[in-house]
């Protein structure tokens, strides 16, 4: 019975390691997709160069009047 228990433990640890690798891969893929979408929308990426999550600066929302005033000033 010891051999069967050892084999179960060995198989279970391999299975858990495989699942952990899959979770890491999926997290990296999700982070890449999020950064791609943010880049398309004109925002900075969510992670810095070390692979850690960076703080995302809050953007100030502007009214349509403020946007129009800026566009007029840039046109002059």
The string of secondary-structure elements, in order, is: HH
Please estimate the helix content: 55-70%
What value does the Rg take, in angstroms? Answer: 24 Å
Secondary structure: number of strands: 0
Shape: rod-shaped
Mean pLDDT: 79
Output the number of helix runs.
Answer: 2
| Quaternary status | single chain
* Unreliable stretches: none
Major pleated sheet? none
Give the percentage of residues in beta strands.
Answer: under 5%
Helix vs. strand class: mainly alpha
End-to-end separation in angstroms reads: 86 Å
Domains (count) = 1
How would you describe this protein?
The chain has 76 residues and is mainly α. It has one domain. The chain is 68% helix and 0% strand. It contains two helices and no strands. The model has no long low-confidence stretch (mean pLDDT 79).
Entry summary:
The chain has 76 residues and is mainly alpha-helical. Helices cover 68% and strands 0% of the residues.
Please write out the topology:
Elements lengths: L1 H40 L22 H12 L1
């Amino acid at each position: 019975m010891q051999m069967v228990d050892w084999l179960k433990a060995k198989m279970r640890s391999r299975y858990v390691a495989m699942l952990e690798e899959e979770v890491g891969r999926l997290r990296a893929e999700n982070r890449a997709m999020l950064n791609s979408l943010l880049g398309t929308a004109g925002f900075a990426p969510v992670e810095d160069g070390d692979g850690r999550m960076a703080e995302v600066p809050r953007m100030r929302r502007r009214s349509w009047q403020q946007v129009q005033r800026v566009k007029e000033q840039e046109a002059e």
